[in-house]
């Protein structure tokens, strides 16, 4: 759909695509990601959504003028997918990711975006030479793991790390760019078991 219809290459359109093709169809986000839960058999874990986001990033690298959103937007979606620590607290203390992204649109705009590319069908090159490692995502993952380990060792609560002791002390949503350093964003894409069948 992203290749054929330029509507899905803008921020609001991409949000609709995720709602329509992933959430409404009942993708088992919690089961597929695992979220550190040992209750899910390894056979149920699958990074399909991560692969989809990586595919979109690869296309955005090949067609930098065709996407209204930037890399930060895609990373923010993944940050919120993987930031769930305590389900009950997440349901009570979080807002929809789309509420956050739609109120902070300036952070997610691609300065190279051109409206003139809207009528074009994208035909990405699938050659291995054209594909690259998403180094920013890997770097952030390493930073987040180090951050978690440090906070986990300082938590002093029997090894339990919850969303209440990770993040900003004020409990408000921080800038998505601050996540890689010392804070987790408290917004969350609502991807819970309600859609699992």
From TrEMBL:
Any GO molecular function: phosphatidylinositol-3-phosphate phosphatase activity
Pfam families from the UniProt entry: Myotub-related
Give any single GO term for biological process: phosphatidylinositol dephosphorylation
Task: Enumerate the InterPro entries for this protein.
Answer: Myotubularin, Myotubularin-like_Pase_dom, Prot-tyrosine_phosphatase-like
How is this protein annotated for GO cellular component?
Answer: cytoplasm; membrane
Going by the entry's taxonomy, the superkingdom of the source organism is recorded as: Eukaryota
Fetch the SUPFAM superfamilies from UniProt.
Answer: (Phosphotyrosine protein) phosphatases II (SSF52799)
Report the residue ranges that make up the Myotubularin phosphatase domain in this protein. 1-138
* Family recorded in the similarity comment: Belongs to the protein-tyrosine phosphatase family. Non-receptor class myotubularin subfamily.
PANTHER family in UniProt: MYOTUBULARIN-RELATED, PHOSPHATIDYLINOSITOL-3,5-BISPHOSPHATE 3-PHOSPHATASE
From the Swiss-Prot or TrEMBL record, give the protein name. Answer: Myotubularin-related protein 2-like protein
- Species in which this protein is naturally found: Leptotrombidium deliense
